[in-house]
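RECORD TYPE: protein structure
NAME: Outer membrane protein beta-barrel domain-containing protein
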Amino acid sequence: MKKVIVCLLLALSNFSLLSSQVIKIENGLSISSMNSTKFNLLNDNLYTYSVFVGCDYLEHRYFYLSSGIGYIQKGGVDNVIQLDENTHPLNTISMKGKWDYLHLNTSFRIKYPFKKNHLYIGAGLKADVRTSSTDSNHSYLHEGYKMASIIPGMKIEMGFNREMKRLIIGVNASYLIDFKNAGKSILLIDGAHNNLSASNALLSFTLGYRL
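PREDICTED:
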């Protein structure tokens, strides 16, 4: 299933380059956290940078397709309270875990045009391909967890674009839904693996050019 989604997204990306009407770059904030099945792990928000390049194509007055390829991170933070010998809190240490991914997506957008602007909502397929090993000051994450190499899923989004002649500026808010877990513990815990699933929300600013 995940290979089918990746191949489909790559094919759509190639087609979109040939028929694109708008080329664009998006960059902004990525908010990520992890949910685990056995105990809390990396469940506080991790704030990182994301960047994408893409294009819009097959544009109609009320809908169009949009494809992109870019960089995101998945992960989270544990805020660990250090105690003294009398169990009084001393300070809080942030323990982070994060992974780099190549992100591919294609979405169908419905738009509401007015003047030189349009609002839109969209949904489509996405795939995240892991490109790095664990980057963490949690030592047990390096050896204790196996992370998925490809995570297929879905992207839902909404946004606003304004056209100024050929130049387009806008803002986009999106949420990524994964169809599989981001990783799991190598060892069993109470007879089962501790599964990690990722939550990702993105807020991006768009700069585009109409061809």
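COMMENT: The chain has a mean pLDDT of 86.
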